[in-house]
C-alpha cells in the first residue's frame, strides 16, 4: 500500500510538472509571436497619429499607452461586414472584462474604431453609430489625409470609388482585421474573421496575462 501511495504521488508530481511546462511553453510561444511581429525585416504596424474622437475631442496614439488596444478600421455606412465585426468586438470586450482571471493590475483593453470614410463619418455620426454596439468603443475620424496616413501606418488597405458626387451613396473597400496593440504601442497580433468572439477573447486575454511576466 505504501508503495502504491508513493507511486501515485510521483505520478501527480510528474503530471503537475508536465502541465507547468505546457503552460510555460504556450506563454513563450505567444511571446515569440508578439516579438516576431515587431522584428527586424518586418514592416512596422502602427505609429504616431492624432485624430478626433466621437466626442469631438483630440485623440492621439499617446492615449493608447499603458493599455492593450484593439483597433478596427471600417465605416458607418457599411451594410454587413462592419456591423458583424463590431458585434463580435462587443462580445470580445465583455468576455475579456468579465474574465475571472482579471485582477486590479491587469492592463485594460481599449477598443477603437477608426473610420475609412471621414467625408461622411463625423464625430456625431460615429457617436450615434457606435452606441448601438458597445459604450466603451471609441470612434476616431479626421481629415482624408490623416485617415490615409494612419491606414498606411497600420498597413490597412482602403479604397473609395472615384467621381463620387456629394450626397451620393457609395461603399468603401477595406481590410478586415482587428489589430491588437500592447501598452507600449507595439503591434502584437492581427485577429481575422475566422476567429469566433470566444477564440479572439482567449487570444487577447492570454497576451494581456503575459504582459511583463
From TrEMBL:
<comment type="similarity">
    <text>Belongs to the SCO1/2 family.</text>
</comment>
<dbReference type="Pfam" id="PF02630">
    <property type="entry name" value="SCO1-SenC"/>
</dbReference>
<dbReference type="GO" id="GO:0005507">
    <property type="term" value="F:copper ion binding"/>
</dbReference>
<keyword id="KW-1015">Disulfide bond</keyword>
<protein>
    <recommendedName>
        <fullName>Thioredoxin domain-containing protein</fullName>
    </recommendedName>
</protein>
<dbReference type="GO" id="GO:0045454">
    <property type="term" value="P:cell redox homeostasis"/>
</dbReference>
<feature type="binding site">
    <location>
        <position position="78"/>
    </location>
    <ligand>
        <name>Cu cation</name>
    </ligand>
</feature>
<dbReference type="InterPro" id="IPR003782">
    <property type="entry name" value="SCO1/SenC"/>
</dbReference>
<keyword id="KW-0479">Metal-binding</keyword>
<dbReference type="GO" id="GO:0005739">
    <property type="term" value="C:mitochondrion"/>
</dbReference>
<dbReference type="InterPro" id="IPR036249">
    <property type="entry name" value="Thioredoxin-like_sf"/>
</dbReference>
<feature type="binding site">
    <location>
        <position position="174"/>
    </location>
    <ligand>
        <name>Cu cation</name>
    </ligand>
</feature>
<feature type="disulfide bond" description="Redox-active">
    <location>
        <begin position="78"/>
        <end position="82"/>
    </location>
</feature>
<feature type="binding site">
    <location>
        <position position="82"/>
    </location>
    <ligand>
        <name>Cu cation</name>
    </ligand>
</feature>
<keyword id="KW-0186">Copper</keyword>
<dbReference type="GO" id="GO:0033617">
    <property type="term" value="P:mitochondrial respiratory chain complex IV assembly"/>
</dbReference>
